């Protein structure tokens, strides 16, 4: 911790308070039966979420973890696990 500037203590409190909720999304493509899974962060203070799908090298930006699952729900059955 940088003790020379008192703003660092305030910044530390801020980043802890605004930390994202971590989640995983997983499921099966109904047509191909391919497993699809990824990990994400939901930023509740901004109503934003990022989801990374390693098998597709894809990063998906959306409003929430639930929105990501709804989008992928069009191709199969998907779930969220809060980590």
Task: Give a brief outline of the structure.
By secondary structure, this protein is of the alpha+beta class.
Describe this structure in words.
The chain is α+β, with helices and mostly antiparallel strands. It is built from two helices and five strands. It has one domain.
Furnish the topology, listing elements before pairings.
Elements: H1 7-17, E1 21-29, E2 35-43, E3 48-53, E4 58-62, H2 65-72, E5 76-82
Antiparallel strand pairs: 1-2, 1-5, 2-3, 3-4
Q: What is the count of structural domains?
A: 1
Please mark out the parts with pLDDT under 50 across 5 or more consecutive residues, or reply none.
none
Shape: elongated
Gyration radius (Cα, Å) is 17 Å
- Average of the residue pLDDT scores: 92
Distance between the termini: 27 Å
Strand content range: 35-45%
Biggest sheet, strands in spatial order? 4-3-2-1-5
Major sheet: size, sense and barrel closure?
A: 5 strands, antiparallel
Keywords:
83 residues; alpha+beta; five-stranded antiparallel sheet; elongated
């Amino acid at each position: 911790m940088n003790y020379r500037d008192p703003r660092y203590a305030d910044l530390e409190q801020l980043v802890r308070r605004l930390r994202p909720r971590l989640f995983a999304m997983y499921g099966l493509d109904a047509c191909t039966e391919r497993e699809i899974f990824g990990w994400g962060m939901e930023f509740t203070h901004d109503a934003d979420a990022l989801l990374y799908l390693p098998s597709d090298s894809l990063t998906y930006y959306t409003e929430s973890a639930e929105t990501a699952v709804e989008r992928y729900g069009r191709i199969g059955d998907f779930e969220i696990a809060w980590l």
